[in-house]
Design goal:
Length: 406
């Protein structure tokens, strides 16, 4: 990712089968930040007066045996101090990669390693539908206060939604939502990071994809699903294997009604889980008159993705708040329960469904989750004001200006 707070960097490089046979290294050349503050400036900084950082070389190791069915993948680990870096991959003999960009061959890959969050910075990870949007006036008020009172403190905003990427991204490109730091979508199976050049400056989190792909036996699951889909072809409208299509760790089966969905889920569970011992999770959603069976790696959820994002941005749990309204937000609120790397604060908005309210009432973290009476985005603002009160404006009046003249 081009934008991160920790100095611990994982480098990944996918190499075609006809690529080099020898060792591959990543060379990192960079500079410190200029004195100006602000992450947006640092991401685009071309100021004079910066100092060069001692170049580093990171050896890449072949990970292909762990990633069966994919192109050869090389991985390396490095630690970089805050600054702007130019990264190039090359062989030990000095042969450099040809990096084909949108506008021709590029000379390097940019990485910005940001300093740790400011002391009073906060991280808000919020659901979208029914939470941040649903009342246009409330949404506008939320962004006005967020940009005026929280963003200057170095706060980060992350959307965490069940929507697939194209649908969620459209809300950002159409200015229904402001550009966030990151977008968690498809119930936690995908994470996208945004740069400083607007809504189209976005890239997937390849580390998260790799983590999820290593957590399930995809090739075996795919083969088993294909057999069952063929056996029940008369009940299936379509089956899509999204990893081959776009890199997303998900299989989607489209059927016509709830009964067919239940039959398919039962068949898959019996054949692949009970008989073969394969581990994954299935959920069923509906839309447009059809039912969709979503097969994803076990452990992929709104909550696990939120923990990944907070770690990447360097926030401690007490500086993070989650917000939601629906039952599918329960995994997000599970991250409020105290544990290693978790223990976030939370708010459920006034229009939250009963299923989420019931879970919160029984949760050991109930005392850290505010039940707002305000609905949608106003409820999110209320939660922020409770957990992270806005910084009061600085008093610009001269000393003792309130004293009467004698």
């Amino acid at each position: 990712c081009r934008r991160r707070s920790q100095g611990d960097i994982i480098f990944r490089l996918s190499i075609p089968d006809d690529g080099p046979d020898g060792k591959v290294v990543a060379t990192c050349e960079g500079t410190t930040f200029c004195p100006q503050a602000g992450e947006e400036h640092h991401m685009m900084c071309e100021c004079d007066g910066v100092e060069e950082v001692e170049p580093q070389t990171v050896e890449m190791e072949d990970q292909s045996p762990l990633m069966a069915g994919t192109d050869p993948l090389y991985k390396g680990f490095g630690k970089l101090s805050p600054g702007n870096y130019k990264v190039k991959f090359q062989t030990e003999e000095g042969e450099e990669e040809v990096l084909q960009g949108m506008h021709g061959v590029e000379q390097y890959r940019p990485i910005t390693v940001l300093p740790p969050p400011k002391e009073d910075a906060v991280l808000l990870m919020s659901d979208i539908d029914g939470t941040l949007i649903g009342d246009e006036d409330a949404t506008n008020e939320f962004f006005w206060i967020w940009n005026e009172q929280y963003k200057p403190r170095g706060a980060h905003l992350v959307y965490n939604t069940g929507r697939p990427f194209p649908s969620a991204h459209r809300l950002i490109t159409e200015n229904t939502l402001h550009v966030p730091t990151a977008l968690v979508c498809s119930e936690g199976t995908e994470i996208y990071w945004f740069g400083c050049f607007g809504s189209e400056d976005v890239q997937p989190d390849y580390e998260w994809r790799e983590i999820l792909m290593q957590s399930w036996e995809y090739e075996h699951i795919k083969a088993g699903v294909q057999v069952i889909v063929e056996q029940m072809a008369h009940e299936v409208n379509d089956a899509q294997y999204l990893y081959e299509m776009c890199g997303q760790p998900m299989i989607v089966i489209n059927v016509a009604d709830k009964g067919k969905a239940d039959n398919m889920i039962g068949k898959i569970k019996h054949e692949l889980v009970d008989n073969q011992g394969l581990r994954f999770q299935m959920v069923c959603s509906s839309g447009g008159g059809n039912f969709f069976i979503l097969i994803t790696p076990k452990g992929a959820s709104k909550g696990s993705a939120a923990l990944h994002v907070s770690k990447r941005l360097g926030f401690t749990p007490e500086k993070v708040m989650v917000a939601g309204d629906g039952e599918n937000d329960v995994p997000l609120f599970e991250a409020t329960v105290d544990g290693e790397g978790q223990g976030f604060k939370g708010v459920i908005v006034g229009n939250a469904v009963e299923g989420l309210r019931t879970w919160v009432g029984r949760s050991p973290s109930s005392h850290k989750i505010h039940r707002s009476l305000s609905q949608q985005a106003l409820g999110v603002l209320e939660g922020l004001s409770i957990h992270f009160p806005p910084t009061p404006p600085r008093d610009e009046s001269p000393p003792h200006a309130d004293r009467p003249l004698l």
